[in-house]
Amino acid sequence: ADIGFTSSTTPKLIVGNLNHIRVISYVGCLTQMSFFILFGCMDNTLLTVMAYDRFVAICHPLHYAVIMNPHRCKLLLLLSVFASLVNSQIHNLTALQFTCFRDVEIASFFCDPPLILDLSCSDTLIKNIVTYMVGILFGFFPTSGIIFSYYKIVSALLKIPLSGGRYKAFSTCGSHLLVVCLFYGTGIGTYLGSFASYSPRKGMVASLMYTVVT
Question: What residues form the membrane-spanning segments (predicted)?
Fold first, then answer.
C-alpha cells in the first residue's frame, strides 16, 4: 500500500521537475487520482487495523492468538481493499459527472481529489455530499478507532508498575504512532483547514509529508 501510494505521485513529480513539465492529461489526472485514493485509503484503513492489532497485543495478550487469528487478519485485509476500491470509484464517478470546469490549474504537484472537485463549475451539492460522506466514513471512523485503541493502550501501560515494562510494551507502537502522526496530522491539516487560511505552498508541503515522507 505504501509503495503504491507514493508511486502514484512521486514518479510524475520527478519527471515533471527534470523536464520542467507542469501538465497532465485529463485521463492521466483521473487515473492518478484513482490510484492515489485507492492506496491512500488502504493506508488509512490498514493503520487502523494495525492500531487494533497493537491494542489486542498489549491489552489482551493471552487472547491475542485467538482474536487475531489468520482468518480474521485476512478478513480485515479484504475489508480494507474493498473499502479503498469503493472510495476510489466514488470519487471517479463524481469527477466524471463534471460538465464544465472553472479552471484547468491546481495548486498541487499531483491531482489532489479535493482540488479536482473544486474545479467544477456545476452544482456543488453532489460534491459536498461526497466530501462529507467520504470524510466521515474514511476519515472520522478510522481516526476514532486509532484514538480509542491508543487510549486503551495508554490506560493499560499506566497500570504496569515498572517503567522498563512500560517502555518495552510501548516500543512496539513507536513506529506505528509516528506514521499515524505524520499521515493524519498533515492530512487533516490539509483537508480540514479552512478555505480562508489555506495556503497553496503550505498545502503542497503538507501533501509532500503524507505522500512521500511517511
Answer: 23-42, 129-149, 169-192
Query: For 87-119, how does the pLDDT look when each residue is reduced to its tens digit (9 = 90+)?
Result: 898 888 888 877 777 778 887 888 888 788 778
At a CB cut-off of 8 Å and minimum separation 6, what does 67 contact? 56, 60
What gap in Å lies between CA 184 and CA 37, rounded to an integer?
15
> What does the H/E/C string look like for 41-73?
HHHHHHHHHHHHHHHHHHHCHHHHHHHCCHHHH
For 149, the grid coordinates are: 485503541
Q: CB pairs under 8 A, 24+ apart, for 117-122?
A: 117/91, 122/97, 122/98
pTM: 0.82
Distance of alpha carbon 117 from alpha carbon 114, whole angstroms? 5
Per-residue DSSP letter, 101: B
Q: How many folded domains does the chain comprise?
A: 1
